[in-house]
Every structure is written in structure tokens, then in C-alpha cells.
Amino acid sequence: MRLQAGGPVHGGYTIARVDGRVILVEGAAPGETVEVEIDESEKLWKGIVTEVIEPSPDRVPHVWDTAGGAELGYLRRSAQLAWKTAVLEDAIGHLGGPLQGHLKDAGLNVRVREVGPGLGTRTRLDVDVDEEGRLAMHARGSDALVAIDHMPLAAPAINDILGSQDDWAGTWRPGDRVRLVAPTGQGPVVSVGKDVYKAPGRKIGARVVERAAGYSWEVTATGFWQTHEKAPVTLLDAVLKGVRLRKSDRVAEFYGGSGLFTLPLTDQARAVRMWEGTAASVRDAERNAPKAEITRASITPSLLASGSEGADVVIADPSRAGLGIKGATALAQSNAQAIALVSCDPAAMARDVRAMIENGRSVMSLAAFDLFPHTIHMEVVTILS
């Protein structure tokens, strides 16, 4: 089917309308005339671009079409930022209820900001090992593996490993899952199962060192850490300055991970309590922030309510699913003077912030960052009073 792509929407699609039917189009730039192959298996049709008839001036040679991991790699960087801003605005408009008017009344603009260059910034890359023993990634939208010897989004140290796989012969086997890590505080490592290598045949401990904003963390190589090399300092700056942290403040932190926020918080606040559900992350956080009171727990609305009691500042960095309406309501109803919500999904953010506004909170700032260049993802930091 030939059609014209409209504006972008959540999930990496543009919207097209043909004979009254809405079609989600993958691989098109807004305004382009394209030919698509239609998937009619679901009620909402989806189309994948097979040919570009009239290209957008924003279309460029794809930075990484060898495999998945760069859904927007066919757009120039400025167009990617405009795409993500439009998706964020759409989420706020459709799911945010009073949030859109609230932001307008407060004079707060919605804009996704660029953070550093689009290539060579990714400090972690998870790959599979194919039947030939080569490191590989899945082709986009497929279970098929494609062997790779470079990945332009990854840090140079990771590409050095990809390009010298023969030197690592015997380190991994077909079917293994391998993580390549380029920590900011030490040299690169390769993680295979429970083993971590600094060089072929040279094992080291399970943790790597990350540094940002004058602090150092030890993080399990297979655990969670922000992938963009500038993400830690960007998020620390947005959160700690946003809540206007004072030395006398008591802080409640939820979904604290390995202690990205926890460590600086213990240096800059009176007392810090942190909750995290993953055992390995809790062990890392206890090592990184020994002054904090850290608890391993499943984070529920009731825990958010009880944990935020007596806190002057609340910080929450949930998974892509967000806090949920009940969780957001629990935090909004606390006595905290400031709440920082770090969201990696614009739809979840809009829903959660809406619930907070409807429970009496006001947005002081909303900052969105492109910490996942060439992909559809973004990070949003919302500060509420």
C-alpha cells in the first residue's frame, strides 16, 4: 500500500490514515510518501516501509541497519529530537489530563534535549553468540541472529572488543549471552555468565567502577546502570538541583538501584532511606552508600506511602511501567516538600504526574533528555512541589 506518513506516536511509529483506517507505520519519517507492507493480523493495522517514494529532507543513510537497536537511525539527529518531543507532547495531551494546561500555565516548555554525540556513547552492549561462535545481535523484529564486528552506538572500547573477537576465542560458546561493558572508571570488561574478564583468559571480580560528578560507584557488571556515558551526571544534576536539596533534608528514595542517587544524597542530605527490589543492586548500593539506610523490598503503593512518611524530599526512579496511579497517589499525598520522578516511558510519566497533580501537587520543572540516541527512548525528570 502507498500512503503518506503523519506525525510520530509512542512506540516508534508514524500515523497514517487511509480510507478512514488508522495504520501505524514503522520506518517512515513524518510527511514522507512510502510504500508499506501491511500486517492485518491485528485490529490496528501496522505497516513496514518497503520503499520510500518521496523522502523527507530529514532522512539520512541509516547509522545501523545491520541489526536492531537503532530504530530512528534513518533520521538526522535534529529530527530525532523533534520526533521524541512530539511523542512526549502527544503522551501529555492524551494521558496527562490537566498536565498539559498545568505546564502551559507555569510557562514550562516540553522539549527533549540532546546529550552529547549520537554515536559512541553506549557503555553497555548485550549480545548473543551464534552457532559459529561469533558475537551477534538480533535482526530488527526477528529471532534471527546477525554476526557483528562493530556497533556504532557503542563506546570505542566495546568496538575494540567486537573487532578483535578472535583474540577472545574460548571465552564464550554458541548460545551464550555476553555483556560488553566500558565503565567510566576503568578499562572495558566482558561478562559471560558469572565470569567477568578484563582480557582474554584474565578474570576479575564481578564489579566494575563507574565515576561521575566527583563520585565513584562499584556496580555489578551484569547489573543495571545507565547506558549512556553522560547519563549519570545528567540525571544527578537534574534531580539534585531540581529538588533544591538542603543539608537538613531527610530523603526517601525508591527504586534506588546500585546507588546512583543514594551516594551523593548521603553526602548532601541529613538522612537517606532507600528501597530497591533487586538483591544484587542492594548489595552494590550498600557498598556504595554505607551511610544510607537501605532495604530490599518489593515496592508497592503501601510501601511508597509508609516509606515517604517524615521525608522532606522523595526521589523515585521506577522501571518503564512507572509508579502506577496508586503509587503516584501515595507519593503525592505524602508531606514531602519536593518529589523527583525519573521516568523512561513518556506514557507512564504522563499518567503518574497526572495522578500527582490531581492529588494537589504542582510541577516545578519537567526536563527530557535523549540518553538513548537513534532509538525511540528518552528519560524525563519531573520535579513536583
TrEMBL record:
The record, for PROSITE patterns, names: SAM_MT_RNA_M5U, TRAM, TRMA_2
Q: Which GO terms describe its molecular function?
A: rRNA (uridine-C5-)-methyltransferase activity
User: Is Cytoplasm a UniProt keyword of this protein?
Assistant: no
Q: Which residues form a coiled coil?
A: none
- Which segments constitute the TRAM domain? 1-54
**Transcription regulation among the record's keywords?**
no
Kindly list the positions annotated as binding S-adenosyl-L-methionine: Q226, Y255, E276, D317
Gene Ontology biological-process entries: rRNA base methylation
UniProt-annotated catalytic positions: C344 (nucleophile)
What Gene3D superfamilies would the database entry show? Answer: 2.40.50.1070, Nucleic acid-binding proteins, Vaccinia Virus protein VP39
Provide this UniProt record's keywords sorted from A to Z.
Answer: Methyltransferase, S-adenosyl-L-methionine, Transferase
Report which superkingdom the organism of origin falls in: Bacteria
Per the record, the similarity remark reads:
Belongs to the class I-like SAM-binding methyltransferase superfamily. RNA M5U methyltransferase family.
Q: What is this protein called?
A: Class I SAM-dependent RNA methyltransferase
Task: Tell me the organism.
Answer: Flaviflexus salsibiostraticola
